[in-house]
Amino acid sequence: MSIDQRTRLRGCGVIAIAALCLLAFATANAEEGKPMIPPAQALQSLLDGNHRYVSDRSDPSNKRPSDASQHPLAIILSCSDSRVPPEIIFDQGPGKLFVVRVAGNTYDRLALESIQYAVGHLGTTLIMVIGHDQCGAVTAALKSYPDPNAGPMLTNIYAAVRQVREHGGDELDNAIDRNAILIAEKLAREPDLEKRVASGALKIQPARYVLKTGAVKLLQ
Ligand SMILES: [Zn+2]
């Protein structure tokens, strides 16, 4: 066999493996009867939507009502801050985002069950945990730390506060990023999510929203 033939065969092998992977993904979708979007594609759709928003080219059709069945391309765990509206900053219409919002973008059992529902029953393959500039909840957590009686909204942020206190620098700026990263890591260890993350069927992406420009920055 010539080197050329061997190279071609090897190329065919790679293509065959890729095709099998795609087939496996499509089969899994067919079993559940839901159109699942690969995590990387879902993330790209979010980033494309944010780019449209930042460049003032949001799609007007995303403001129209819809009674179609929902197949959200992403779960967004965001802060409740009124300046961070997920559907607007990602330019997504009804049915596209499954949103859980709580001040400080952390979660409790109720929020976790909402997230698990979207992953398990709606076929969503991407969770984005998004913090933002000037976060009041993170600011308050920095002030109250280490008071254990501060309440879950603030104590849920203490792990991030503890880490940034050890490293110095701009504590608020660092704690906002650290909090989104730690919450994403914590989610990745939760029942029903851990195996999906390990297999690559689910991606959990920490991010930060820049208030002044409207841009979303990926943190990892
Ligand atoms: Zn906030």
Written overview of the protein:
- This protein has 220 residues and is an alpha/beta fold.
- The protein has 2 domains: 1-33; 34-218, 3-Layer(aba) Sandwich (Beta-carbonic Anhydrase, Chain A).
- 50% of the residues lie in helices and 12% in strands.
- The protein is built from 9 helices and 5 strands, in the order ααβαβαβαααααββ.
- The chain has helices spanning 3-32, 39-54, 86-89, 109-121, 136-144, 152-155, 158-167, 171-187, 194-199; strands spanning 74-78, 97-101, 126-132, 203-209, 216-218.
- Helix 7 packs across helix 8 (171-187).
- The longest helix has 30 residues, at 3-32.
- The structure holds zinc ion.
- Tell me the β content: 5-15%
The major sheet is characterized as: 5 strands, mixed
- Structural class comes to alpha/beta
Taken from the alpha-carbon principal axes, the silhouette is: globular
Domains, number? 2
CATH architecture level-2 label of the largest domain: 3-Layer(aba) Sandwich
In the CATH hierarchy, the third-tier topology of the largest domain is known as Beta-carbonic Anhydrase, Chain A
- List bound small molecules: zinc ion
Approximate helicity band? 40-55%
Low-pLDDT windows of residues: 11-31
CATH class category label of the largest domain = Alpha Beta
Q: Tell me the Rg in angstroms.
A: 20 Å
Mean pLDDT value: 89
For the biggest β-sheet, the strand order reads: 2-1-3-4-5
The overall strand count is 5
Order of helices and strands: HHEHEHEHHHHHEE
Short description:
By secondary structure, the protein is an alpha/beta fold. The protein has nine helices and five strands, in the order H-H-E-H-E-H-E-H-H-H-H-H-E-E.
